[in-house]
Structures are given as C-alpha cells and as structure tokens.
What we know:
Pfam families: EF-G_D2 (PF22042), GTP_EFTU (PF00009), IF-2 (PF11987)
Largest sheet: 7 strands, antiparallel
Strand content: 25-35%
Main location: mitochondrion
Radius of gyration: 34 Å
Mean pLDDT: 82
Subcellular location: Mitochondrion
Number of helices: 14
GO molecular function: GTP binding; GTPase activity; translation initiation factor activity
InterPro entries: EF-G-like_DII, IF2_II, P-loop_NTPase, Small_GTP-bd, T_Tr_GTP-bd_dom, TF_IF2_bacterial-like, TIF_IF2, TIF_IF2_dom3
CATH architecture of the largest domain: 3-Layer(aba) Sandwich
CATH superfamily of the largest domain: P-loop containing nucleotide triphosphate hydrolases
Helix content: 25-40%
Low-confidence stretches: 1-7, 12-19, 129-143, 168-173, 415-420
Number of strands: 29
Shape: elongated
CATH topology of the largest domain: Rossmann fold
Number of domains: 5
Strand order of the largest sheet: 14-13-17-11-12-16-15
Amino acid sequence: MRPxxxxxxxxxxxxxxxxxxxxxxxxxxxxxxxxARILRVSLSRLQRKMxxxxxxxxxxxxxxxxxxxxxxLAEEFNYKPVVNDEAAFDLYPSLPTDSSxxxxxxxxxxxxxxxxxxxxxxxxxxxxxxxAKGEAGGITQHIGAFSVPVPNSVxxxxxxxxxxxxxxxxxxxxxxxxxxxxxxIVVLVVAADDGVRPQTKEVIQLIQRDxxxxxxxxxxxVDKPGVDVNKVQNALxxxxxxxxxxxxxxxxxxxxxxxGKGLDQLVETITAVAEMQDLRxxxxxxxxxxxxxxxxxxxxxxxxxxxxxxxxxxxxxxxxAGTTHAKLRIMTDSTGSQIKVAGPGMAVTVSGWKELPGAGxxxxxxxxxDVKKAVANRKRKAEEQAMMVDIDAINVQRRLDREQRGRExxxxxxVTSETEKKPHELRxxxxxxxxxxxxxxxxxxxxxxxxNARAKxxxxxxxxxxESDILLAKTSESxxxxxxxxxxxxxxxxxxxxxxxxxxxxxIYQVIEDVRQRVANLLPSVYEKRVxxxxxxxxxxxxxxxxxxxxxxxxxRVTKGIVEKSKKVQVVRNGVVVHEGRLDTFRRLKDDIxxxxxxxxxxxxxxxxxxxxxxxxxxxxxxxxxxxxx
Length: 630
C-alpha cells in the first residue's frame, strides 16, 4: 500500500457551507469490502473511486486499508469520519478468496414467474406435498425455502437441491428480488397458455442485472390442448432470452407441473448447470446466510427462515441479523424435523431471536460479546440515520409553522394554493403473518393515492392483532390491516367499541383493492346531472291573482321522458342554463299533477323565477354521485 504522501490522488475536499455531513466511525484497519458496508455504498462504486485516485492495485474487496486511507475515502462520499475502533465495531462475513479447494454445496434454485403460471404446483410435484391447495387465493404469498433430494447424474445416489418458491403477484417485487439475490440458478416458469406476462418480464430484468445467475426456462402447462410453445419461445426472444431451441444458450424444458411430465428432464438440466457452476462453500467456518422470512410462532416466539450460504450452524450459536440477535434454541429443516447441524445451501428455521429480524437481512454468528456489541452499534447507527432523514422534514414543518404564525399575527389571509394543501390521508396500521408480507404490503399500499388523497403507513408489525394495536389505531385515527393473521375476540370487541375499522384478508390483491377504495372514498364527491324529462315552453300566460298580483305560467309540452314535480329543474335558453330551482305550479287543465309523460301538455311555473320565455326548455334532473376513482 502507498504510504500517505505518495502519488495517490485522494485528498480532503474543501468544506462546503450549509452542507450537513453524516458522521461515520472508522476502525483503525478495515478491508475494502467492509469499508463499503460502513459507508453504505456499493463495492463497485468504492472501487471505482479508488481507481480514480490511483489505488487500482488496492481496490480488491479483501485488501486491508489503514485508517488514513479509509478516512480520505469516507470524505470522498461526504462523510465526517471519526476513527474509533469501539464505536466502529461490527461483524462482517469472512468469505474465502479461493473456493476451489472447498467442498461442493447444494445449488440454490429459485422458481420464479408470473402469478398462476404453476410455480408452486411444480414444486409440489417435486416434493410430493400439496402447498398450492392451501395457498390463499391460489397464489404463493411467501418465499418457501426447502431442500429436495433428487437423483445424482454423476455416480448415482441422491443429492440435495434447495428450492425457493417466490410469489408472482406484483406486490411481492422485493421478495422476488431477494430470491434472485441469493440464488445460483433461476428457473423461470412460463405458462404455455398465457405466455410472457408483467412478472415474467420483471424476473428477466432481475436476471439480466446479475450475470452470475444461470437461467433455465420451464415452459409449463404444455399438456393443455391448443397451446403453442413456439409462440412462447418467440415472446421470450423478444425480451432478449435466446433459448437453445432458438439457437441461443439458455436451456429450456417443456413440462407439466400438474402431471409431472418433463420434470425428470428439468432436474437433470438443473443438476448439469450446477455441476458446470462448480458451487463450493466453506462448511466449517463462520456461519453466513440470509433471512428469507420471519414470523411469530406459537410456542417458539420469534422465528426466522435462514438460508445458509457458508459455514455451519448449530444450536447454541449466537447470531446477528440487522439490529437484532439470537441464541439459537431450536433449528428445524423444511420438513419440520429438528436438526443439530446445518451446512451451506440449507434452509432452516431458527428460533431464539430477541426481536424479529427483517426479511433479507444478513445472518452471521459470533461470540455472545461480539454479537451484542455489534447490535448496540448498529442500533445507534440506525437511530442516527433516522434522525438525519427527519431533519429536512422537521425544518420544513418549522418553516411552515413560522409562516402560519406570521399570517396570524399580521392578520393576513392564508394564500396557500390548492396544490400545497395536505391531501386527505387513510392512516394504516399493518399486521401480517411474516415479515416478507409486511414488506410487500407496505410497498404496495403506500403507493396508493394522488395529490388529493393517499394511504399513509403509521405502523407495521408481525403477529396477531392485539389490544395495543387497537389503541394505536384509535390514537392515530387509523384503519387496521390484518393480513393472514388472527383477530382475537378481545381485539374485535375493542375495535367495535372504539369504532376502529379492521380489514382482514389472506389475499393481498383483495387488501390492495379494499384500501384503494377506502382512499378513493376520501376524495370530494363529484355529481353528474342526469336529465330524465324535458318540456318545451310553447306560450307564456300571465294569470291575475288576488291583491292585484300576477303569476307567469308557461304553457308547455313534454317532449322527452317524464317530468316529475319532485325533481330539480333547470331552464335552458339558447343552449345556456339560465336558472336552476324547483317547480311551483304543475297542472294539466285545472288539475294539479305530480308527473307528466311525453306528449302531455301542461302549465308550469317555477319557484323564485318569473322570466320564462317562449322556446325555453325546462329540464328535470337528478344529481347522481359518480363513483370515486383515484
């Protein structure tokens, strides 16, 4: 490494006034990869900055930097670095630079595709269970992670393949991205009777961003009559996926998840691709993995599905994930059986978490002291970052408060434009069965609305609805979303007593539509006039009344529909409405009437309007409230 003062081009930037710098703690020595994590920038971006500064030789992710260089790099990203080993302490994965001598690990295969294209049914056939029948609304709403023994094409016997089944609904984009992020092979399931759909295209985009992920296309439902496989292949070609059948390099298999047709060939293809990738991992070192899902489970408390990518995991291990930690109590595999050791490529359910970890968080093991120390530092950093995010909002609110006080003191009118007025808000308290569902719901619901009405997330959590949730909803005037979680009778009673609405469903698109309609209902009402009858004014008569008064009566003929006295009327003259009101006198010959149909001649006078003229048109109408749409 070049010592300070060499030809490296890094230097402190001049101070910029009125620019808030974020404080960051830097250890005395730190690897390039870990510094990227500390600075919350991508490794490639940090390496690019180092190469620009003439540090290309030191830009490998495992190269160790001294504090002097780390400080200068931090300043390049507008941080205020502080060298403090205690405050900077954290746990990071220790991954080997050369994996060629490590043992082979099971491939991690993610099944992806559009909703209802048969992903879960395909996996059901592989593992001979029936998950799809129990899925709410017939769609997968969680990432399922499990291992399946399949025949080994080399040497016979069985080998393990870890499968991830991701949701297809549009709201679960983050879960699909997380599945692609931890996978070696993506099997893109495309229904032969439906072709390339929105989530199909989204998966293709995810794969195209990661050249290390190998793609296999499974064209499903080929047993259906009338399907055209060539049409699907051409549609994939239009999206940049060149199948082997079309002269490309992407393997494809025609299958039927329902009958099992082609599944042997699919497994062989997966095995062959995995062998070419030569997937290896350390099976004895530090445990490193990712949280696939987390939830509250009766009898076990906080549990999480961990996909182990490296190292080994045993009961009693101290784990860290995000800002929470665990002492591993019980570990079960995808069948629910307790196991004593988990190795790379396995998906296991882990209990013992102090708090629920977030879906997608990295999982690492370490000593109890190191884990607790790292958690404390992470929580402090999270609080500082949240404070930084809030500063702008606080300053904006204070400025608005000052302007409001100024208007009140100066007795000035509020000139706030319509576009600056706050929209109506549907506040939401979201509780779901697992953290991934919370993530998907929050992402889908917070986007609902426009400049006049919108949804606002007040709180999210995992687990059943409690009386504390009801209290929170009452205080914040919120609606409770109970997604795939029970609502105990006590909570229902409390909600009824407090007039708190609860939206309870197991199907995400039903929740989205319900919330969308509730937000739409916050919009101001819009009415449309529906004319139900018209009468032409043929002649004007002045009728003498007692006391020398006169009353103008219009001799009319009903030309359209039915004229009813109970409805509102408008007078149209030369195409322009000159009066709106109600009928006063409504007679046929000498009799008072309440309605007259087409062709009927009648006498009409209006309340508070005596200026009727020949050839005016009197229309009767209803004000119809139009459906509210965002």
